[in-house]
Here is the input.
Amino acid sequence: MTDFRMDHVGATVQDLGKALDFFRALGFEVEGRSEVGGPWADRVNGLDGTRVDMAMVSSPGGGGTKLELTRFISPEPVGEKDRPVNSFGFTHVCYQVQDVDAVVARARDAGYGLVRELVNYEDVYRLAYIRGPEGLIVEVAQAL
Here is the structure.
């Protein structure tokens, strides 16, 4: 059995500055902010031309699950029933796993597919987004 550990929860927002202000007011700390995109992001997200402004915030005391707040620069965020990863609101939860291939295989065996594909992120993680029912997305990431 592969062990799971909550890593972070992602939320897409329209105004990252206002979202950061809100979380700071609650006592969260901003761990970092950057603009990211490129082929690996397109492949894992199932979108083309992905460019995001994102920030990672941690809960007071640093003991809880981190939040990844993302503002999509491109493509534009949208809202629909089978929400893509650039829609507003909470989009996915991420778990670190010991064997990402085993988890992806179990998901496929149960009838669930990937948003697009399993990718290598800068030789740091192998990761994939698994789409569940109701548009739920679970990211699984294996440290390399």
